[in-house]
Design goal:
Blueprint lengths: L2 H4 L2 E7 L10 E4 L6 H8 L4 E6 L8 H8 L1 E3 L4 H16 L3 E4 L18 H9 L3 E6 L2 H4 L11 E7 L13 H18 L16
Parallel strand pairs: 1-7, 2-5, 2-6, 3-4, 3-5
Antiparallel strand pairs: 6-7
Length: 207
């Protein structure tokens, strides 16, 4: 996203293990900012489709860009939710990665992560596609979830954690896979001292 340079945001990717850009993954990331969607463009340098909540598409101007770049999901509508999942499964069959926020919505706590939904992990097992966790370390500092008008220049880092393979897993193992990925991401966010952890979320100073 060239616009990052002009608004004073400099992005870098950090790889904790070798990453094969020719291999499809179910990418999962923490979700804490309106900036998360454009950060994906700077982070994932391979064919990918993104799943995002439909409510974001209603934001003026930003929503137009969002809904044209992302497969939206309406979690309150079972039929529409199922259709979104079908689309994503068809994408994976074409050797294209998918990107999901398993928390489903912004993490407004002082914990590293909110509880995960099952969707990403069910798709990973059903499609036999490894899960690749990604951390967005600075999105909260660059743009607070409260408003798109809180944009602040500075660094943006994405951390690629080790992939989690799903060979031998069945749908009965979704809770275990979900827990494994959650623990990996939680530990890494604590290691990198993500700025929202352990402080009052409402008064945390953004740098």
């Amino acid at each position: 996203m060239p616009g990052f340079f002009f608004i004073g945001i400099y992005h870098s990717n950090i790889y904790l293990a070798p990453h094969d850009k020719n291999k499809p993954y179910i990418f999962v990331a923490n979700h804490i900012s309106y900036l998360d969607a454009p950060i994906i463009v700077k982070t994932v340098r391979q064919p990918v489709r993104v799943l995002g909540k439909v409510e974001m598409s209603y934001i003026p101007l930003f929503g137009f860009i969002y809904k044209n770049a992302i497969v939206t999901v309406d979690r309150g509508n079972a039929a529409k939710r199922a259709n979104s999942v079908r689309i994503l499964k068809s994408v994976v069959k074409k050797n294209i990665s998918i990107f999901m926020f398993p928390e489903g919505t912004f993490n407004e706590t002082n914990e590293p992560l909110k509880d995960f939904y099952d969707g990403a992990f069910r798709i990973a097992i059903e499609s036999k596609t490894p899960v690749k966790p990604v951390l967005f370390l600075d999105a909260y500092d660059r743009m607070h979830y409260e408003s798109v008008l809180t944009l602040t220049p500075g660094r943006s880092r994405s951390v690629f954690v080790v992939e989690v393979r799903v060979e031998g897993f069945t749908l009965a193992d979704v809770p275990q896979l979900k827990e494994n990925v959650f623990n990996l991401m939680d530990l890494a966010l604590r290691k990198y001292r993500a700025s929202w952890i352990g402080d009052d979320f409402a008064v945390k100073r953004r740098v």
